[in-house]
Amino acid sequence: MHVPDGFFDATTSIGTGVASAGAIAVGLRRSADELSDRLAPMAGLVAAFIFALQLLNFPVASGTSGHLLGGALAAVLVGPWVGLVCVSIVLLVQALVFADGGLTAYGLNVILVAIVPAFVGYGVYRLVRALLPANRRAVVAGSAVGAFVSVPVAAAVFAVLFAVGGSIDLEFSSVLTAMVGTHLLIGIGEAAITAAIVSAVVTTRPDLVHGARDLAVDLELRTGTGATVLEAS
After folding, report:
1. Could you tell me the CA-to-CA distances from 118 to 30, 64, 70, 76, 121 in Å, in that order?
2. Sequence ranges of the domains in the chain
3. DSSP, res 8
4. Going residue by residue through the chain (233 aa), what tens digit of pLDDT does each one get?
5. How far apart are CA 49 and CA 65, in angstroms?
6. Residue 45: enclosing H or E segment and its boundaries?
7. pTM of the model
């Protein structure tokens, strides 16, 4: 999904860059309000973990491979706005250090890998949670479905943007079919990885999962004189 330099014309690259910069600016302001002293380290861990996972590719079909996008995972763990910032930082480091995704295409990559997966994935996650009982299994199921849906939606957005400003004249239906078809398979891997990670975290520390804050319970520290209640969130 990482777009290299030269795939899109200058107008599209600049336009998506401006849009991405605006989204990141809002995300930074929201992050400052939402991150507590306890949750700030979680955001750093999420960014580092997604960075590592994006370096690992898994086979898909016909010699192609895919890797985790991570937007939905980040959104469930730390919220969509903070998740957007985390994945955007990962993309910037990858572009500067590993040349994975072009610098002129950075705005495009932020839209495709950070913004769309984070907000589409989190929106689907909230919908699934609303339809299921309020328990940890619903959190895991919602994160898996949200992650799965976010990948082909991001692929479809790529096809639309390519039709608007792609550097090669290709038929829109062909690009859409190829991108969505391949990324449906990648979405399965995305869902499995996201569900496994969210399950591990929510089982032990639901208070650290943004999308499971309603499941967090107060902890009691019992002393000789009584019980002192500690807030879990």
Report:
1. 14, 24, 8, 8, 5
2. 10-230
3. B
4. 688 888 899 999 999 999 999 999 999 999 888 777 667 888 889 999 899 888 777 666 655 657 789 999 999 999 999 999 999 999 999 989 887 888 899 999 999 999 999 999 999 999 999 999 999 999 999 999 999 999 999 999 999 999 998 888 889 999 999 889 889 989 999 999 999 999 999 998 888 899 888 886 544 445 555 544 444 44
5. 20
6. helix 40-54
7. 0.86
Burial of 85 from C-beta contacts in 10 A (0-12 / 13-18 / 19+): buried
Reading phi first (left if > 0) and then psi (alpha if -120 to 50, else beta), residue 56 is in: beta
| Enclosing H/E stretch for 43 | helix 40-54
Fold category of 10-230 in CATH: Arp2/3 complex 21 kDa subunit ARPC3 (1.10.1760)
Whole-angstrom distance, CA of residue 183 vs CA of residue 15: 25
> Which residue in the block uniquely carries the two structure tokens 């750093």?
44
Exposed/middle/buried for residue 91 (C-beta within 10 Å: 0-12, 13-18, 19+): buried
Q: Please, what is the end-to-end C-alpha distance for the chain in angstroms?
A: 35
Alpha helices in 79-221 (DSSP H): 80-93, 106-109, 116-131, 136-165, 172-204
